Amino acid sequence: MDEHDPVETLEHPSWCDRAHCTATVPRPEYRAGETGFHRSAPVTLGDVPHVGDIVLDPDLNPLVAFLAQPAPPWEPVTYLKAGTTADPEFLSLTAAQARAALRQLDALVTLAHADS
Prior knowledge:
alpha+beta; two-stranded antiparallel ribbon; single chain; about 120 residues; 7 strands; 1 helix
């Protein structure tokens, strides 16, 4: 092995989908944002007809969500990102924030279900 051309490997989280992953091994002279993100395959949230003024069409402008984590040397914080084809990251929460929000939403929906 040439000492000037070390072979470095990049570990991917188990949920990382290589077809969507943009993560790269950092070079010594890397610049901010150059190392990309580990990304999961997107999940389409088909039962949401709109978000605010944005109409969500399952074929033309679906609501999608995916996981993302910055590649080293950045802190490996996992995010839940949601958006549309045109703006895939209009919602970005850490996994911990997403879990807390989903627990709160579940409690709220449970109240509605109790009345039905």
